[in-house]
Amino acid sequence: MKIIDIREADLPITSPGANAVVDFAGLKTSAVAVVSDCLRGGRPLVGYGFGSIGRWSEGGLLRERFIPRIMAAKPEELLDAAGIVDPMKCAVMAMRNEKPGGHGGRAVALGALDMALWDLVAKLADQPLYRVLADRFNEGRTDPDVAVYAAGGYYNGGAQGLRDEIAGYLDLGYREVKMKVGAVPLAEDMARIEVALAALDHDGGRLAVDANGRFTLEEALAFGHAIAPLGLRWYEEPGDPLDYRLMAVLSESYPGALATGENLFSHQDARNLLRYGGMRADRDILQFDAGLSYGLPDYLRTLAVMDGMGWSRRRLHPHGGHQMSLHIAAGLGLGGNESYPGVFRPLGGFADASRIENGRAILPDAPGIGLELKGPLWRWLRGTFETE
Amino acid sequence: MKIIDIREADLPITSPGANAVVDFAGLKTSAVAVVSDCLRGGRPLVGYGFGSIGRWSEGGLLRERFIPRIMAAKPEELLDAAGIVDPMKCAVMAMRNEKPGGHGGRAVALGALDMALWDLVAKLADQPLYRVLADRFNEGRTDPDVAVYAAGGYYNGGAQGLRDEIAGYLDLGYREVKMKVGAVPLAEDMARIEVALAALDHDGGRLAVDANGRFTLEEALAFGHAIAPLGLRWYEEPGDPLDYRLMAVLSESYPGALATGENLFSHQDARNLLRYGGMRADRDILQFDAGLSYGLPDYLRTLAVMDGMGWSRRRLHPHGGHQMSLHIAAGLGLGGNESYPGVFRPLGGFADASRIENGRAILPDAPGIGLELKGPLWRWLRGTFETE
After folding, report:
1. Which of B81, B105, B109 is nearest to B91 (CA)?
2. Half-sphere exposure of A163 (CA within 13 A, CB side)
3. What are the tens digits of pLDDT across the range B319-349?
4. I want to staple B266 with a disulfide (CB 3.0 to 4.6 A). Which of A112, A259, B103, B330 is the partner?
5. C-alpha closest to that of A53 among A84, A82, A75, A24
6. What angle (nearest 5°) sits at the alpha carbon of residue B322, between those of residues B319 and B327?
7. Cβ contact A102–B242 (<8 Å)
8. Nearest-CA distance from B148 to chain A in Å?
9. Run of H or E residues at B70
10. Is the four-CA dihedral A49, A51, A56, A61 of positive or negative sign?
11. How much is the pLDDT for B52?
12. Contacts with B96 from chain A: Cβ below 8 Å
């Protein structure tokens, strides 16, 4: 087989408003289509991917560096022994002559490209991606469903809006909900948290809070003291994602689960969090997102780092709410995955028909990642890339 | 005053060949021109900048995010109280709605833009940039000259090539030379080092070596043991730039100076190196490069981190060999600066007429950064941006 074309385009995403540090108005990410010379029903088989949610599009990098390097590679530099495209080898070719360190936008761009490559690989195997990943990297073990939580709770709805939003998530089958904090004074956030807890107070509903890296150490400690009695599901990204010491100090006084990792874009950064962040393997949550960190090739290195340091993969609940991470979670035995049922359209949520039951998502059995099963996203991909 | 246009273009750079991890063939960086409505001799005053050497161009980010954000800002969001463009405020506007963490390509793009803004500011003041920086951030204190070392010693010349190269640097007035190591077996590198040391063995010549992040911990230790008796100027970037523990372990056994930091692109990453890397404030060298790390606004935060942790600025010898860092070194009292007298044309080296005397560079007194004093670079900038 042969990759005959790789296309990229900016994909506009609806904004949920602002978190504690960023206004997402006008948000775009990069979408990628990898076109093969393999035919299915007379048409070339195509893999689709996109950059994970919350960072801006990186089309320049894809057009100027990564796509040309892949297209210039020899077949044996991209294919496995069976002659099938190998995303691990593609990642090596894409990263040729890139210096070490500086894990930022290029990790996002390659996350999008890697997603499209795995979609293609799973379609070639006529299997859902989680099955392919389990067979290759997890001794064939898959989870029948994946714990998911509904991420939302932005600042644009007021108390009644928050109540309605949470009721909607519970109706959809979610049991765990995450809301934003840190953009307003502590007392105001505490009032919002009380509203959310009241709305969740049945069927085992639980609440997580996310400060998006806004707090200083002092603010993070004060917020932690305030919420400690509430027994929240977790307290996410209190300070700057690279301030490992803040996490370590906070973990000495905050008794509940802490969560972070979505803004660490490499296994080297993930390793530093585990070395220096004081994270506790019995309770804390790691949110590394393959879609922001070079895709699965580097994510497997992160899993190896975790294994070597005594961390269960069940502590991983990736950021991003995308189907790639859902497949990784089901195929590699992670603890769960984020979900954006109400925001970041057309990327938020999983397949249109996918059910959430008692807080767990059941994966579709369609070949590949299944972006074709999300109507509005699929129409955009098909129309933009003119692949069908 | 008003910024009336910001232009960017890819600037091709000649390659020195390969270091231990990267082949620089086809290297490009981003050049930026900030055009003001202030006239000098009937023409608009323009500030010029470029991305620091060794990373690829980031034109997509400049065109799609950073330039549009600056051009959309209100005048008071970009100007200081005197009505002059303020690079610190421009940096805030450029980074609006960027998430924390993931310090990579965007830090390089903003390094280029920041350089152009400071060039414009100094030209408006009719002063060399180092004088402006000293007045604003260093109580007016400047250094009359700056220690510089000649970086080269790539793998493309053989023993005689290395001898000739070093003799050339000594003829130019350099006393310290850096060569690449780590791409070949230890014994072969040791033979190259002996050649270089012999070539430097007069006039106080000293040799530094740079592994460009290639070594594992075991290899870094073995290399350190091998070179320890040689008393080299420093041993640079032995392992991955984010592997702080490797540096900490190596510092326990390697008695001489260690150097690193060029691949840390934010003050948060720099702080982690100082917190966790075991770097010794009495001897080790920090090579953070403003041109790769959001420019001067974030560099000043790095200087504040260093001050707070008891580090003298004299331990700083920035990577990149560009005139922006040369001005920062002279204006803010750093220890020195890299120089590429023979490679990475047209960026390598400083002003055409600038002299190196006994290993120190004397800065020109022209207004701004002085890119106009580098003939081939200036011809390229002027022709590409059609500013003159």
Report:
1. B109
2. 8
3. 999 999 999 999 999 999 999 998 888 988 8
4. B103
5. A24
6. 100
7. no
8. 23
9. helix B67-72
10. negative
11. 92
12. 23
- Which chain B residues are Cβ-neighbours of A23 within 8 angstroms? 96-97
pLDDT for residue A306: 98
Q: Cβ atoms within 10 A of the Cβ of A358, count? A: 11
How far is residue A303's CA from residue A299's CA, in Å, rounded to a whole number? 6
Out of B100, B245, B276, the one facing A213 most closely (by C-beta) is: B100
Nearest to A65 among B56, B244, B264 (CB): B56
Indicate the burial class of B204 (C-beta count within 10 angstroms; 0-12, 13-18, 19 or more): exposed
Q: Could you report the per-residue pLDDT of A308-327, keeping only the tens digit for each?
A: 999 999 999 999 999 999 99
Q: Is the dihedral of CA A236, A240, A243, A245 positive or negative?
A: negative
pLDDT-derived band at B16, boundaries 50, 70, 90:
confident
Residues in Cβ contact with A197 at an 8 Å cutoff, skipping those fewer than 6 apart: A207, A230
Matching residue, tokens 């949550």: A285
Structure tokens at B47: 């500030």
Active site residues of B: 180, 319
Residue A366 has pLDDT above 90, yes or no: yes
Provide mean pLDDT across the span B182-202: 96
Closest chain B CA to residue A213? B100
- Calculate the CA A212 to chain-centre distance: 15
Q: How far apart are the first and last CA of chain B?
A: 19
- Arithmetic mean of pLDDT, A341-363: 90
A265–B213 CB contact, under 8 Å: no
Chain A nearest-CA distance from B103, in A, is 5
Is residue B162 pLDDT above 90, yes or no? yes
**How far is residue B324's CA from residue A242's CA, in Å, rounded to a whole number?**
27
Instruction: Judge whether A319 counts as a catalytic residue.
Output: yes
Q: Which of B58, B95, B242 to mutate to test binding with chain A, by most A CBs within 10 Å of its CB? A: B242
Hey, what are B102's tokens?
Answer: 């993931």
Coil, strand or helix: which one is B46?
A: strand
CB–CB contact A263 B292 (8 Å): no
Asked if A245's CB is within 8 angstroms of B275's CB, the reply is yes
- Rounded Cα–Cα distance for residues A307 and A298 (Å): 14
CB contact under 8 A, A103 and B104: yes
Containing A34, the helix (H) or strand (E) segment is strand A28-40
CA distances from B76 to A230, B51, B98, B211, B261 (A): 44, 27, 21, 46, 35
**Do residue B59 and residue A60 have CB atoms under 8 angstroms apart?**
yes
Distance from CA of A110 to the nearest CA of B (A): 13
- Cα distance between residue B91 and residue B78, in whole Å: 9
From the number of C-beta atoms within 10 Å of its C-beta (0-12, 13-18, 19+), residue B293 rates as buried
Separation in Å, CA of B23 to nearest CA in chain A: 6
At A231, the amino acid letter reads G
List CB contacts of A72: < 8 A, sequence separation 6 or more.
none
Banded pLDDT at A15 (limits 50, 70, 90): confident
What is the pLDDT averaged over residues B219-246?
98
Measured between beta carbons, the chain A residues lying within 8 angstroms of B263 are 99-102
Write the residue in B104, B263, B265 that is nearest to A107 by C-beta: B104
This prediction's pTM: 0.97
**Is the confidence at residue A222, as pLDDT, over 90?**
yes
Locate A148 and state its tokens: 């998911």
Beta bridge partners of B29: B11
Chain B residue nearest residue A294, CA to CA: B102
Among A193, A253, A245, smallest CA distance to A221 is for: A253
Within 8 A of A263 by CB-CB distance, chain B residues are 99-102
